[in-house]
Specification:
Elements lengths: L2 E4 L5 H11 L8 E6 L6 H9 L3 E5 L8 H12 L6 E4 L15 H32 L11 E5 L15 H20 L6 E6 L16 H14 L8 E3 L8
Parallel strand pairs: 1-2, 1-4, 2-3, 4-5, 5-6, 6-7
Helix pairs in contact: 1-6, 3-4, 4-5
Family: Belongs to the short-chain dehydrogenases/reductases (SDR) family.
Organism: Anopheles arabiensis
GO molecular function: carbonyl reductase (NADPH) activity
């Protein structure tokens, strides 16, 4: 894997993925492009980038759809025409309203924009760079060494596994993202670009809370291991951080 772009890296799982990638045995990815929104809230990422030349922090808001094409050009310039091996759509939000009687229209719309619309539009913008990477490695097997899209999903997006109800904005946005991932896997299969949805587990982040059983380090180390092991048989799949298949 020569290059990876991860959205939402100022904290939590995004920052954890960057740390897990730079901790890999050599060779680590040549380009780890990590997006962040607010420099004041991204000090850990920016400090890490000063210590590792292969980390390229780029300020970008996934809700700013008018700048997607320019952002793709900026990434292309960083990659110097080599194409993008992995697009990891990590940025996401969870609304505070959970139960039906507290659910708000604005919360639903905002959550769908960030969790569903943004990953779809980001993928659309980066298909040319993913194709470029895939075409440049015709001998490589389908997977992250060639071209791969990973959409950060959640078990809460599983319809079959829903036993508690509630969480309308988060559950439905992740279910929709899973459906989009499946379509991506079919639409891009001919270009040898694969797509998977990944559940990070219940993790000790601002979103997951302190009672979660997994640390950010544990989840991200496992996700990176799963990412590197992906192959054509996983295309269109819904996987847990450790590679275990999940029910839709």
């Amino acid at each position: 894997m020569n290059s990876i772009l991860i959205t939402g890296c100022n904290r939590g799982l995004g920052l954890g993925l960057v740390k897990a990638l730079i901790g890999l045995p050599a060779p680590a990815p040549t380009h780890i492009i990590a997006t962040y929104r607010d420099p004041a809230k991204s000090q850990d990422l920016l400090a890490l980038a000063k210590q590792h030349a292969n980390i390229v922090p780029l300020q970008f808001d996934v809700k700013n759809f008018d700048l997607y094409d320019q952002f793709a050009k900026d990434v292309d310039a960083v990659l110097q025409g080599a194409g993008l091996n992995v697009l990891f759509n990590n940025a996401g939000i969870s609304p505070k309203s959970t139960r039906l009687n507290f659910t708000k229209q604005d919360d639903l719309v905002d959550t769908f924009v960030v969790n569903t619309v943004a990953p779809i539009m980001m993928t659309k913008a980066f298909v040319p760079l993913l194709k470029k990477a895939s075409d440049a490695n015709p001998a490589a097997p389908v997977g992250p060494q060639r071209a791969c899209i990973v959409n950060m999903s959640s078990i809460l997006g599983s319809i079959e596994a829903n036993r508690e109800g509630g969480l309308y904005g988060y559950r439905t946005s992740k279910s929709a993202l899973n459906a989009a991932t499946k379509s991506m896997s079919l639409d891009l299969k001919g270009h040898k670009i694969m797509a998977v949805a990944m559940h990070p587990g219940w993790v000790q982040t601002d979103m997951g809370g302190a009672k979660a059983p997994l640390t950010v380090e544990q989840s991200c180390a496992a996700m990176v291991g799963t990412l590197l092991a992906l192959n054509e048989s996983n295309n269109g799949g819904f996987l847990q951080y450790d590679g275990k298949p999940l029910p839709w």
